[in-house]
Amino acid sequence: MIEPTDGRGAWLQFLCRACGLIYDEALGDEDSGLPPGTRFADISDDWVCPLCGVTKADFEPYTPQQRAPAASGTIPAQRGAGIVIVGAGLAGWSTAAAIRALDGSVPITMVTACAGDVYNKPELSVALARGVSPEAMRRETGAAAAERLGIRLRSETVAVSLQPTRHVLRTSRGPLPYTNLVLAQGSRPAVLPGLPADLCWRINNLGAWTGLHRALSSGPRSVAIVGAGMVGCELAEDLARAGHRVTLLSATARPLQPLLPTPAAQRLAGNLATLGIEFRANTVVTDVVRIAPDALELRTADGATLAVGVVVSAVGLVTEDRMVRSAGLDFRHGIVVDPTTLRTSAADVYALGDCASIGGVACRFIEPIARQAEAIAHDLLGRTHAGYVHAAPVIRLKTKSTPLVIHGIPTPNGDWRTLEDTAERLRMEQWDGNVLQARLAA
Which is the most buried residue in 9, 52, 76, 331, by most CB within 10 A? Predict the structure, then answer.
């Protein structure tokens, strides 16, 4: 890595509030024409995040966490109950790193049903058109990340049940006692009745994306995407740009309804159409059947059929509730947590990321995870900290045809007002009485 020679101090890092990408001045962004050593302050204001496309204004200073030294200079053998983290996604690894930044010796065990490999999840819906392989997507193996942080990784292990009063997590590889437990298991794709799991891809992790990548690797295929929310629209554009024939089916009249006002939704649908994507509105899929070794048939409520090679279901996310409900934890659209400490209703149990719920709303965004992990690490180690402050994140639709950004959270009955509507740009605001709820730019 090059050393700073411009007399402006150490290299700095900046975090994208929309997708969590980190711009490192030492590394630059050569794909965007920014060589290593490019200071963030010197980047043009119209530069965009190479992953999700938001502008420079949506980045904020980021201080990477350094691992605290162990008391003996090395990480000791994992003995005692210690801290158990369930889930090896961004939330789980962020929590492990935040704890290690404060304490180099406390035993940490991570339990995950997968291999625990580290990757950038937002990239799943934009990687095919870029020609990114599963190997290139993987930033670090789970085993390597565990060794780097000095934790014990129990991969391919399922969390089965939780006994909060006994401080025991039961897994498919036996019981695990804990001093503190952090639930970071994320969420899973929702399943519509009539969509058999073995015939429909659901893309929410690297393993599933790897399977879809393999299924589409033989050449252009006809693909049906069921669901026109953010993931469905992003995948539709990504697959179309990769050369596949895409049909996007929506149970609503417009894509991203009711999040988007009509002018923005119409612009999005029109731009997707220019890529060859067929949008079928008000279409409810009732069944998917195999009609040939390499062909499927979708059947809809109005009696229509559609023959395709691949079906992708993108009808939303749900938080797995079986284990936490049986353990008696409060649950409302997710595991209910204290908005400052991220503690659940059970003693010494925390939750963050997709599986957590604040004010009855699931936390489905990437940007807050690092701050949530930091708050949890301080609280469970008894360190002074101001606590987590929940704020509306930037909502970014990662489609090049319609680079749409929403600041704030729109309300169902808010009044959308158009500020600018030209061929190049759409700007709108949503007001609820005299309160500005959200700003939209597309």
Answer: 52
Q: Which of 194-198, 203-207, 400-404 has the lowest mean pLDDT?
A: 194-198
Residues 214 and 250 reside in one and the same domain? yes
Domain count across the chain: 4
Residues 149-170 have pLDDT tens digits of 999 999 999 999 999 999 999 9
285-290, Cβ contacts within 8 angstroms, sequence gap of 24 or more: 285/192, 285/194, 285/195, 285/226, 285/249, 286/193, 286/194, 287/194, 288/194, 288/195, 288/196, 288/199, 288/200, 289/199, 290/199
The CA distance from 401 to 398, in Å, is: 9
Residue 411 lies in a domain: yes
CATH number, domain containing residue 149: 3.50.50.60
Instruction: Tell me the mean pLDDT in the region 47-60.
Output: 81
Whether residue 136 lies inside any domain: the answer is yes
Q: What is the DSSP string of 284-301?
A: -EEEEEEEETTEEEEEET
User: pTM (2 decimals)?
Assistant: 0.87
Give the pLDDT score at 48: 83
Q: What would the two tokens of residue 113 be?
A: 């049903």
**Does residue 319 have a pLDDT over 90?**
yes
The pLDDT of residue 65: 66
End-of-domain residue from the set 299, 317, 335: 317
Across all residues in the chain, what is the average pLDDT? 92
Tell me which residue range forms the domain holding 372.
83-187+319-380
Pair (124, 104) in one structural domain: yes
Q: Which helix (H) or strand (E) holds 439?
A: strand 435-441
Q: Cβ(36)–Cβ(28) under 8 Å?
A: yes
Report the number of secondary-structure helices (H) and strands (E) in the chain. Answer: 8, 30
Record the tokens describing residue 119, joined without a space.
Answer: 């990757």
- My answer on whether 256 and 357 are in the same domain is no
* Rounded Cα distance, 191 and 195, in Å: 7
Range 375-401 average pLDDT: 92
- Quote the percentage of the chain above a pLDDT of 70: 96
90 vs 318: CA distance, rounded Å: 17
Q: What are the distances in angstroms from CA 291 to CA 200, 305, 420?
A: 14, 12, 49
96 in the same domain as 35: no
pLDDT at position 21: 78
Query: Are residues 240 and 287 both part of a single domain?
Result: yes
pLDDT in tens, 269-305: 999 999 999 999 999 999 999 999 999 999 999 999 9
